[in-house]
Design goal:
alpha+beta, 11 strands, 231 residues, Nucleotidyltransferase, domain 5, eight-stranded mixed sheet, three-stranded antiparallel sheet
Length: 231
Amino acid sequence: MKKVLVINSGSSSLKFQLIDMTNEAILAKGLCDRIGIDNSFLKYTKQGQDQTIINIDMVDHKDAIQATIRALVNEKIGVISDMSEISAVGHRVVHGGEKFHDSVVIDDEVMKAIEECIDLAPLHNPPNIIGIRACKQIMPDTPMVAVFDTAFHQTLPEYAYLYALPYDIYKKYGIRKYGFHGTSHKYVAERAAVMLNRPLEELKLITSHLGNGASICAIKDGKSVDTSMGF
């Protein structure tokens, strides 16, 4: 049975879900909050049960990953017997620049490329990297995959992603429209095609992502051709 642990690592928080890929059921989900801050805690919900709140000191993201694993294997609230049941770990990474057009298995070269994008997302990529490193320390033999917010928008045509600025600013500093919430826009487009009972490759869609951040995306033939979020 394939089980995938999905991680969204923030500066002082870490969200997770454990998904059974045979039926895409969420076995457990949770949030490690106030990492590196006093009164840190873990909110944990096992499928079909009420939420459990565990007060636990989490000095760093490694502590958060360890707390997550302990909850997942706990006799009362756990959903796996040991870590070997986790087949892979997927990490949300906000910015992949122009380097990544799809999700990739994380190796040293990929880590270096993500680090090189820190200037483009100084608030987001560093905690994403911390989460990846913490997982690799605890689960060194488990495949890790990076899923980029920006990857879906790498199909933007040049006229859509270039700003009305001197071209050498783009070439020297990488200042262009990258687009975000790509995983959300991609999913919404695919679901719309299913609900309309039409091939995605034949549709022209406007998708909306509404959350703490919001953006819209123009999608033609399943590919992003414009989006409201920029640099």
